[in-house]
Amino acid sequence: MSYLRADKRGGGTKPSLFLKHRRSLFLSSPQTSVFLFSLVFSFRRRAKGGDLQQSVAFKNHAFSKCAMVFLRGVSALSRLRSRLNQQSSLCDSVRWLQTQSSSDLDLHSQLKELIPEQQERLKKLKSEHGKVQLGNITVDMVLGGMRGMTGLLWETSLLDPEEGIRFRGLSIPECQKLLPAAKPDGEPLPEGLLWLLLTGKVPSKAQVDALSQELRGRAVVPDYVFKAIDALPVSAHPMTQFGTGVMALQVQSEFQKAYEKGIPKSKYWEPTYEDALSLIARVPLVASYVYQRIYKDGKFIAVDNSLDYGGNFSQMLGFNCPQMQELMRLYITIHSDHEGGNVSAHTGHLVGSALSDPYLCFAAALNGLAGPLHGLANQEVLLWIKSVVDECGENISKEQLKDYVWKTLNGGKVVPGFGHGVLRKTDPRYTCQREFALKHLPEDPLFQLVSKLYEVVPPILTELGKVKNPWPNVDAHSGVLLNHFGLTEARYYTVLFGVSRSIGICSQLIWDRALGLPLERPKSVTTDWLENYCNKAKAT
Ligand code: NMX
Ligand code: MLT
């Protein structure tokens, strides 16, 4: 098993539930007992032979696996129990299972219940409404990057041009209000968003805590991943190093192994789920390694078992300030998903349609995210803002700023952080970051410069006459927040975007497999074909 080779750069968590109730577990069913005995036996054998750190990583991972098996077993037993209605004959351990944990806390069990319903819904939609038209495709759309062409099914979020993103129907302010937080009135925990994206339901704090624990248990990265990154020059772009690490993680793909063994189509979603959750759990370790390698002393900071996903990522980057941890929670939540047509999400989905595993899909998605018109814009924004300061100082007047914007445009460049392929108003992800800044860093000079840009840039872009959306997008704001708390290295920013986007892309991939979505293969045509088609259409 791949985790046997895990090294010290892993996290893991102590499954206190498992330790406390292991006796009941061993007694709960013959299959569970056999599985647990063999796991414990193999762990003991390993612990004798291997070094201590390997044993600890393995033990943590093995215990988390047990806890997962345990929760799934609980769910199966609960359902069996209701069917047979044999309340009195169930042993103590089963009664404990029902009252203490149940399938409510296990995301996998929740999905298992939801998937058949959704499969039915899609089947019905196809058979009853398969021929309903969703609009006309025009030549402009074909030549214009497919803007406005509806052509993808994406369950986890939907983008409205005026309102912005809704995650499973919830706007960003609604998520901030409804999703569990690390502290009262705090920012949403990204694990909560992951639960929401996958199930369509707002999770309880207990569900989010269980998911945090599961992710920590999966946060183990083999040494060869770090060695693959180490093979690159330190000067390689952080996104190149991050993408290389993600590709190396692919060696652990459960989907690839299951497919090689001939798993039936109806079960594809299960190893996809395993890969997706492991990938989400592991990318912060790879990302923080890249950060430490390029900008710090290369020391690896381990997972802290007392922290959630966002808090942990912040501390692994070396930032322990509570405000930075809150920022990271907000950052990961809002960058996670932006419906299916954006370059990174669409790439992940397209590659996944060939049944490539989640690691391959996500690595491909990252390469799209690394483009300056997409995720790399967050790097470009801070570098551009710093160039403004270098040339004109922090207290630049609005008139000077206007001149600088025109200089950029006249130089044939875009103003980074403004405009959007779909949005036609200020991005709500910009707005919530602005609110965060007003609360935590109102006096920051770069934040004040960003505020001035909000006044200066839109009228200029409107004056250009061709820009469809002159308003700021998510990337216009994120850099100054990170910079304020000491994460000043702009070239690293797109890696943070990437860590967050793993949540959206992987969530949808699970549903792609659960719904049996087909190979994506749109039709393309040549200019000749288009001209002939249009001439014929004109003649008739
Ligand atoms: N600065 C200068 N020109 C712009 C800008 C801008 N911020 N936004 C759009 N335009 C230009 C665009 O280049 C195009 O020019 P041309 O016809 O000469 O090729 C024209 O306006 C029409 O473009 P739109 O239809 O408004 O925008 P489109 O959907 O093609 O592109 C972006 C959307 C986001 C690529 C574009 O607005 C842009 O380049 N923005 C700056 C980069 C950026 O912030 N990207 C991040 C997007 C969010 N994300 O994280 O991915
Ligand atoms: C995103 O978050 O993916 C960007 O805003 C780009 C997009 O939605 O097209």
Quickly list its features.
540 residues, Cytochrome p450-Terp, domain 2, globular, two-stranded antiparallel ribbon, binds nitromethyldethia coenzyme A, binds D-malate, 63% helix, mainly alpha, disordered N terminus
Structure summary:
The protein has 540 residues and is mainly α.
Give an overview in words.
- The protein is mainly α and 540 residues long.
- Among the domains are: 6-86, no CATH class; 90-126, no CATH class; 377-484, Cytochrome p450-Terp, domain 2 (Orthogonal Bundle).
- The protein contains 25 helices and four strands.
- It has helices at residues 16-20, 22-28, 30-49, 52-84, 92-100, 107-129, 139-143, 172-178, 190-199, 205-218, 223-230, 238-249, 254-260, 269-295, 309-317, 322-335, 343-353, 358-369, 377-392, 398-410, 428-440, 445-464, 475-484, 493-514, 527-539; strands at 6-10, 157-160, 164-167, 220-222.
- The chain has a two-stranded antiparallel sheet with strand order 1-4.
- α14 (269-295) packs antiparallel against α24 and α19 (377-392) crosses α23.
- The longest helix has 33 residues, at 52-84.
- The chain is globular.
- The N and C termini lie far apart (65 Å).
- The relative contact order is 0.11.
- Mean pLDDT is 87; it is low at 1-61 and 75-100.
- The structure holds nitromethyldethia coenzyme A and D-malate (MLT).
- D-malate is lined by residues 338, 342, 421-422, 473-474.
- D-malate binds at residues 338, 342, 421-422, 473-474.
- The active site is at 374, 420, 475.
- Belongs to the citrate synthase family.
- InterPro entries: Citrate_synth-like_lrg_a-sub, Citrate_synth-like_sm_a-sub, Citrate_synthase, Citrate_synthase_AS, Citrate_synthase_euk, Citrate_synthase_sf.
